[in-house]
Amino acid sequence: MTARDRADSRLGLLERMIRIREFEEGVRFLFLEGSMPGTIHQCQGQEATAVGVCAALRPDDFITSTFRGHGHALAKGLTEQELLDELFGAATGCCKGKGGSMHVGDMSKGMVPGIAIVGGGIPLATGMALAFKLQKSDQVVACFFGDGAVAEGAFHEAVNMAAIWGLPVIFVCENNLYGASTRVDLVMKNPRIADRASSYGFAGETVDGNDVEAVCAAAKTAAARCREGGGPVLLELLTYRQTGHSRRDARAYQPEAERKAWAARDPIEIFAARLEREGVIDEAGVERMRAQAAKRFTEAVERARSAPQPSPDDLESEVFAPESQP
Question: In 233-312, at which residue ranges do the beta strands (DSSP E only) sit?
Fold first, then answer.
């Protein structure tokens, strides 16, 4: 990779994180004004986990997501338009208006629509990885989940199966310190989640989840290991959400000093400052990125507001059910 290519790659990481932040901030205000149905679970502060992991994957690799999936979707290649159409319930949304905020995804772009059940994507990812192995494909599946999912039986069963069969799956734990409002150290005697991997006999690593380059490097190493038949990898990405668990959560359980400490480690600000110090971009360039992301969002919102809504006939399309008995 040439120096120019490397610089462009790094700028791409920053641009994608800024797009996610602008999207989430814009969506927050749309929900506050009552423009959108349903609810939202947002990822401000966690942009580096989504962007870093997805940048390490190939287009034909897959990810599974959670109910906090907007960032994963944008990082995996979905557009603001198809996401906003989905959030507005339009037939042109990524899931044709049937999924909403908690179930965004696009199989053609390698993202299984989000699964709202805590830990629900983990056994699915293991099953997909088994399919890849049986097909003798070198594809990889990366499975995003939060620290709260580690307490689910599905986590233990799925990672054990992946270990026994040596499956090409990267288990990506976005450890933001809270399962809803409960701190991780109140429910785990050993709060270092990466240590769980050794008990099942495979590799685990704890990474600074607010450093997009560190995340990307760890994910690239994990993906290479998976492709070479080395079995699964558990990546624990330490991060922090700068928003509530859901839109009605005021975050009163997060101590003010803790919030300030993590705000000083904002993944976008840290990476932008690094690139500025190294002469890859200047402050004006960063502001242009923000302005472009905001413009993309605003234009997509205007189109989404007038996008066609599903018809009653759509209730029976793309639904799997057994044939009715006579």
Answer: 233-238
